[in-house]
Amino acid sequence: MSSDTAKAGALVLEGVKRAFGEVSILNGVNLRCEGGQAWAIVGANGAGKSTMMKIAAGLQSPSSGKITLDGEDVRSMDRRSLARKRAVVGAGWSSQLFDFTTLELVLMGEHANTSRWSLPDDAQIERARAVLERLDLSHLASRPATVLSSGELQRVMLARALVSRSPWLMLDEPTANLDMRHQLQVLEIIREHCRQGGSALVILHDLSLVEAYFDQVAILHEGKIAASGSPNEAMSEALLSDVFQVNMCAVALQNRRLWYATDTGDV
Amino acid sequence: MDAFANLSRTTHTPSRSSCRWLSLLLALLVLFSGCEPKKQAEGESTGESNTTTTSNSGALETTASETSKSAAPEKDAILVARSKSLPENPERIVSMAPNITEILYALDQGDRVVGVTRFCDWPEQAKQKTKIGGFIDPDMEVILSLEPDLVIGMVAGDAKIVDKLEKANIPYAFLKMDHFDATYDGIAHVGALLGGDGEGKKKASALISKMRQEVHKSAAASQARLTQQKVDAPSALFVLGHKPLIVAGKGTFGDELITLSGAKNAAADLEGSYPQVDLEKLLQLDPDVIVDATMTPATANTNDDFWKSFGSLKAVKNKRVATFEDPSLLRPGPRLPEALERFSGSISPEEK
Amino acid sequence: MFARRAGEPLTRTRIIAWLTALLVVELLVAMAALAIGSSGALLGEVIAWVSGDELSATTRAILFDARLPRVWFAAITGCALATSGAVFQAVLRNPLADPYVLGISSGAALCATLFLALGITQIGGALLGAPLFALGGAALSLLILLGAQRWAPPGRDGVYVLLLTGVIFNAFASALITFLKAIVSAQKAQELLFYLMGSLSVEGLDTTTMLACTAVVSAVTCALFWFSRDLNLLSLGDQDAEALGVNARGVRRWVVGLASISVAVAVAYTGLIGFVGLVIPHGLRLLLGPDHRLLLPACALGGASFLTFCDLLARGCFEWFSMTLPVGVVTSIIGAPLFVFLLRRSMMGARGVR
Asked: What is the extent of the structural domain holding C302?
C-alpha cells in the first residue's frame, strides 16, 4: 500500500473566504501545508472546519480566494486528476443504496486510477485486502456494507481512501465513532502514510491525540487561522480556552502534553 | 453558486445540453414520421385514399368510391372500407361484430360463418363458432388461422385491424350502420358481398322487405293506440345508462324507435348522440314516458329505487317508467323490428 | 459458483457466463412464444421449420405476421423498460423508481390518449399515428424534466426535485387522461383503457418501424452500459461520487435523458406496461449483485425474456378468455407477487450474513 504512494505536493490556501448568503463562515483563510506533513485542523463546532476541508478538496468553491494543490489550481483540475491527487472522506456523507460488499466498496477507490471498462485485477484485489487487513476489517470483506456499524463503515471509507493511492488524505473526523484501539490504529496509519511521502489534512477534536500524532496543527477560529505550526508552538492554553470557550489545561508528559478541559477554575 | 458547474471542465451551458436533447428527439420524431408515409403509400396502392375528415372512425373513414372487378358492392356511406378485391363466393366468413353475425344468420348463411366475436350471442348456434376476440380487440392470429375468404366488420371497432388485414391479404369489408335505413342498406350490402350469383342479394331483399313490413306494422299499431287513447305525441326518454345517466339523443337508434312509436324524443335538442343528463336537466325535460334499457326483470325491483330518487318526474309519478329488457335487440340487424315492437309497447301500452 | 455468494468482486468470467445464460433463456422463451399463441401451439411446425421444412401459407402468416412482430417487440420493450428501471433506481437513489416515475411515459400516454380521443388523422398532409403523438408527448415531458434539472440544486436535493417534478407531472397527466376518458364515448374509453393497460398488439407494424425502434433501443441501451461504473459510484451519494472523480450531475443528466428516450419509444407503441421496470432490476440485483457492469446487460436480456414470457402467457390464455389478455395485466399479476417475494428475501438477507 504505502510503497505506491506518490510524493505529495504542497496544499496552499490563499485568502479563502466562504459565505452562505449573509452568513460568513470563512473570513480569509491562509494556510500552507507542505508535502509529507500530517496536519490537524482543530476548532469549535461550526467554526467552518468541514467547509474549509471541502473547499480544500475542491468539492465546493470558495466565495473568493485560491487553492492550489501541487502547484495547480484545484478548481481548474478535472475530477479524475483531482481524485488521483487527493482522497477525501467526509463526516456523515456516506449512504448505502445497494448492498455492495466491503471489498467492492473499497475497490471503488481505484476509480480514478482505472479505465472505464476495466475490472479489478488480482493485484488490485490483493492490495485492497491488505488495506482491509491493516484496518482489522478482513472479516468483513465479503459482507454487504449495509450491515456494518458506523465505526466499521468509517474505517471502510478510510480503507477506500488508502486504496486510491492518492498522496493527499483529507479526512473529516476519522476517529469519530471509533473505540480507543481503533482510534490509535487509524492515527498510526495516517502517520505512516505521511512518513512515506504522503500528506494528510485531518479534522480532529481530541487535542491530546493531535499532540501525539501530528507534526502540524492549524486552529480555525472566527473564520481565520488563529495559529498554525507544530502543536507546541500553535496550541497554548490561552488560545484554546478562547477558541473553545472553556478552561483548557495542559499537562506536560515526557515528549508531549495531555489536554483536558474544566468548567470551574480548579486545576 | 453552483459548485459543480464551476468544477466541470466542459464549457457547455445547461441550455445547450437541452438543445442537444431537443435536436436528438426531433431527429427521432423525423425518423419515425418517415415510417408513417409508407403506410399511406401502401394504402394508396390498395385503392384506399384518406381524406381530411376528423371523426371517431379514424383511418377507416373514406368517401372515395372505386371501381372493382367483381360484382361486389362499391364503397359508399355504408360500405366504408373494403379491400381491393372481394371474393365472388366467400365460403369462410369471419364476423367481427355481433350485429353482422345476426345478419349473416338471418340470411341463412350460418354455415359459412367460421369466426365470431365473444359478444356474438344470437342466435344460439353462433355461440358455438370459434371466437376471434372482441369488438375492439380482435386477435389477428386466430383470424389468420381460420383462413377466411372474407372478413366483415363494423367501422366502430378496432381501427388498426384494417392495416393488419391488408398486410395479410385477407379480403375485408367494413360497414357503418347507425340508423334504420342504414341498416337496411347494410343488409343489402352484406347480401351483395355473399355473392352466389345474386343469391345473397335475393335473400337480403327478402329480409329487408320483411323487416320494413314489420316495422311499418308496429309503428302504425303504436300510433293507432296513441290516437285511440287521445294522446298526442308523448315525450319519451330512452335511458341507456344510470351512472352516469345517459340517454339516446338525436340520430340514434333509440331516437328512431321513439319517433316510429309515435312519440317525441325529449332529448332531441341535446347535444351529441348519447348525452349525459343530470337531475336538473331531467326535470327540465320532464318526459311523459321513460324507457330504461339498463334494467332487466331481475333488477327491475332494485332499480325502482333508482327512479324513486327522481320522484318529481311526471313519468315516475304516473308510473310510466318501463323496462326495455333486451338491449342487444338494438344492434343494427335483423332484430330491429322486434326492438320496435317491444319499445312501442312501452310507449303506448294496451289499455286494460 | 457464479452466484453472488462468493463475495468476490466481478470477474470477466462471471459476466460472460451470466450473460450467455440469459441470452439462451431469451432465445428459448422467444422460440416458445413463437410456437404458442391464441390459435394453438405450433411446436411441431416450428421444429419442422427450424430443420428446414416448408410451412403452409397460413402457418407462415401466423408465425411471421402475427407472432413474430409481437415477440420481437416484446424483447425490445422488455429490454428498454428493465434497463431504464435499473438505471433510474440508481440515479434517483430510490429503489421504488420505475421507468415511469419521471413522467416521460405520462406525457407520451397523454398525447397518445389525446390522439385516440380526438381521432385526428391528418395534420397538414402527413398521416399521423398515435405513436408519433406519443413520442411528441415524451419529448415535451423530457424538456420539462431537463428544465427542472437546470434549476435544481446539486446533490441529494437535486434528486428530490427531479423526483417531485416527475411525480407532479404524472399526477397532472393522469388527471388529464382521466378527464379525457370521462368525456369521450364509452367505446372510445375502452379503447383508451386498452392502450393505457399496455398491450403488444403490434402485428400491423411495418418492418422499417420495427427496425427503427430496435436501432434506437439498442443504441440507447448500449450507451447506458457506458455509465455502468459511474452508476456504481453514484449509489454512494453525490459527495462521495464526486470525490472519487464522477461528474454526478452530468451522469445523471445523460442517463435520465437516454433512458427516457428508450422508455418513450417503448410507451409510444405499447402503452404503459407495468412491473417490468421495477421487478426485473430488483430480482437480478438479488441474484447477481448490484454491480451495474453486469446488472445492466443482465436487465436488458432479463427484461426481454420476462416480457416475452408474459406475452406468451397472454396469448396462450386465449382459449379461456376469448381474448388475448393485455400484457400489462399479465406482468402485474406475475410481477406483484414476485416483487413481494423478492422484497422479503432481500429483507431477510440484509439482516444476516450473506
From this structure: 70-349
Confidence band, pLDDT 50/70/90 cuts, at residue C181? confident
pLDDT score, position A127: 94
- Shortest CB distance from A58 goes to which of B1, B7, B9? B7
Q: Which of C239, C247, C285 sits opposite A98 (nearest CB)?
A: C285
Strands (E), B92-221: 93-95, 113-116, 130-131, 150-154, 172-175
C234 → chain A, closest CA residue: A97
Q: Do C128 and B33 touch (CB under 8 A)?
A: yes
- Asked if residue B254 has pLDDT above 80, the reply is yes
The answer to whether residue A231 neighbours chain B at the CB level (below 8 Å) is no
Grouping H, G, I as helix, E, B as strand and the rest as coil, residue C221 is: helix
Task: Give pTM, 2 decimals.
Answer: 0.82
Digit-coded pLDDT (tens) for B103-116: 999 999 999 999 99
pLDDT tens per residue across span B52-98 = 333 333 334 333 333 333 456 777 888 888 888 888 889 999 999 99
Nearest CA in chain A to C250: A79
Identify the residue among B130, B137, B242 best suited for mutation to test binding to C, counting C beta carbons within 10 A and taking the highest.
Answer: B137
CATH number at residue C264: 1.10.3470.10
> Is residue C43 assigned to a domain?
no
What b-and-e string marks burial along C249-274, b requiring 16 or more CB atoms within 10 Å of the CB? bbbbbbbbbbbbbbbbbbbbbbbbbb
Would residue C274 count as lying in a domain?
yes
Q: How far is CA B162 from CA B115, B137, B150, in A?
A: 17, 12, 13
Rounded Cα distance, C145 and C161, in Å: 10
What is the least distance, in Å, from the CA of A108 to any CA of chain C? 7
Asked whether the beta carbons of residue B156 and residue C118 sit closer than 8 angstroms, the reply is no
Cis peptide before C337 (omega within 30 of 0): no
For A144, the 3-state DSSP assignment is: strand
Residue C76 maps to a domain: yes
Cβ <8 Å between B38 and C127: no
10 Å CB burial of residue B85 (0-12, 13-18, 19+) is: middle
Taking residue A58's Cβ as centre, other Cβ atoms within 10 Å add up to 26
Residue at C4 is within a domain: no
Sign of the C-alpha dihedral computed for residues C261, C264, C270 and C271 taken in this order: positive
Contact C242 A125 (CB under 8 A): no
- Burial (CB < 10 A; 0-12, 13-18, 19+), residue C169, is buried
Quote the percentage of chain A above a pLDDT of 90: 77
Q: Please tell me the total count of domains within chain C.
A: 1
